[in-house]
Amino acid sequence: MTDFSRLGVAAIRDGVANGEFKAVEVAEALNARVAAAKALNAFIVETPEMAVAAAQAVDADRAAGKPLGKMAGVPIGMKDLFCTEGVQTTAASHMLEGFVPTYESTVSANLWKAGAGMLGKLNLDQFAMGSSNETSYFGNVISPWRRNNGDNAALAPGGSSGGSSSAIAARLCPAATGTDTGGSIRQPAAFVGISGIKPTYGRCSRWGVVAFASSLDQAGPMARDVRDCAIMLEAMAGFDPKDSTSLDLPVPAWEAALNSDLKGKRIGIPREYRLDGIDEDIAKMWDNGIAWLKDAGAEIVDISLPHTKYALPAYYIIAPAEASSNLARYDGVRFGLRDLPEGAGLQDMYAATRAAGFGEEVRRRIMIGTYVLSAGFYDAYYTQAQKVRALIARDFENAWASCDLILAPTAPSAAFGLGEKNADPLSMYLNDVFAVPASLAGLPAMSVPGGLDKQGLPLGLQIIGKALDEQAVLNAGLAIEQRSGFTAEAGEWW
Amino acid sequence: MSVDKDTVNKIARLSRIAISDAEADKMVGELNGILAWVEQLGEVDVTGVEPMTAVIPNKLRLRDDVVTDGDVRDKVLANAPAREGSFFGVPKVIE
């Protein structure tokens, strides 16, 4: 009997289309795996009946000879930042506990239209703010991975898409949605040895996605290989008049055009990413990545992105500023939590509701954002950060004169233990050092597994491409995948 | 630039977030740590640089000038913590 947990998106889609198995069999098998993996805390809500209903519809369509969608019969996990009609959507916050949208996000609607089904809503860092999945109101997500020293310490699955990464690595689902504001798809993918791509800003509609920092937020797929990411990205992307920053462009046939022959491609290696004191396993993996891309026919060039060190501080002004504005909507009036102390007026109700509904990290970021936008400080902080952001984008523009893609590590370390980095907010922020520049410039960027470190934990290689050139990013990802021989997976202890 | 406890209380008020005295004390240190770190942006020469407004060049589209409120009052009110008839209920604002 087929072990459906071992099949990826392409294999399930093709198997269903060819009649090798029924979509319902896949949905039932994965529902059972989700139900048995509570120890990972990857899901906030499980929706087994929806997975089965979507699968039955696909099986019926096939029996009737109707054409099947790009994701027909593939059950997926949905990050709980996407509004799903009739299914609680919380952004992992107490503020939105019990919030049941009366509408469907464009990205999730696109996926259901393509024949995918929903296994459940995946845990995340609260309002997508975090890099370890420790800020969720619904508890930490645990990575399925453990160090090889036998300590069995619970490790972070990365964040903010930590439920997505944990569930895919544990083979509870073949793929899941993620969102990336400053690395929230790529860093968790790297931490658990899977792939994930953040497309060009504007490829995927933000409509119906709980907003964090609107000029940065971008949805993308996470899966166990590059082809599966290409398939799912095709299903998610597309113009949406309901998002004013949605790109009015056709969705390329990324899967059909996958090609790992990189002859004629120039790969830039940014010298500023080789930080002093870089982890030696990370440096070694990066060198391996360079060798693999060379072997695939690419030419390697040394490049400079001179403003790299300013990307993270600029991000930690811009993202909180936008968050403080976006999260002003949570007022206890229209939806979400209301905390109305005895005898309180409207202003007190706002303040009490927001104190009770937002977690510590969310409150911290709202306050930083409010401060940098306040009278007297706006120019010194916010305007300056937006100018630096323009320089960071210009660095990439200049780099494209001598290269077509950039290769770098995804994160400066392998997964850390839960609780190891949350005493000091700054040390957690520094984990996004390699991921944030591409976010600030709106560029497509992908993480693919690059190997294991000495502790036996996965490390990720990041490929950054020119705006709208997801194809080149995916192709380079495929070239790495074919050469890295990465087959390691977490032991099933849960 | 650094913040003191009065400033933290003011930011909390502007943010409409109630904070206790102990929380304000803790926040002074955290905010100052983060602000000291972002201060390094001041070193960057930004002469002649326009602040970024859009990462990918894109024109804002105009939609047709028609009513698109969807006629979905009950859906809009469905998640209200205190619905009153066809309105959102709030504590009394005017005496």
Can you tell me the CATH architecture of the domain at 4-258 in chain A?
Alpha-Beta Complex
Instruction: Label the overall shape of chain A.
Output: globular
| Distance between the amino and carboxyl termini of chain B | 42 Å
**Rg of chain A, Å, rounded:** 21 Å
How would you sum up this structure, described in words?
The complex is a heterodimer of chains A (494) and B (95). Chain A has 494 residues and is α/β, with parallel strands linked by helices. Chain A has a domain at 4-258: Amidase signature (AS) enzymes (Alpha-Beta Complex), CATH 3.90.1300.10. Chain A has 15 helices and eleven strands. In chain A, helix 4 links the parallel strand 2 (75-79) and strand 3. Chain B is flat. Helix content of chain B is 35%, strand content 4%. Chain B has three helices and two strands, in the order H-H-H-E-E. The longest helix of chain B has 18 residues, at 21-38. The mean pLDDT of chain B is 93. Chain B is mainly α and 95 residues long. The chains are: A alpha/beta (494), B mainly alpha (95). Chains A and B meet through helix 9, helix 10, helix 11 and helix 12 of A and helix 1 and helix 2 of B.
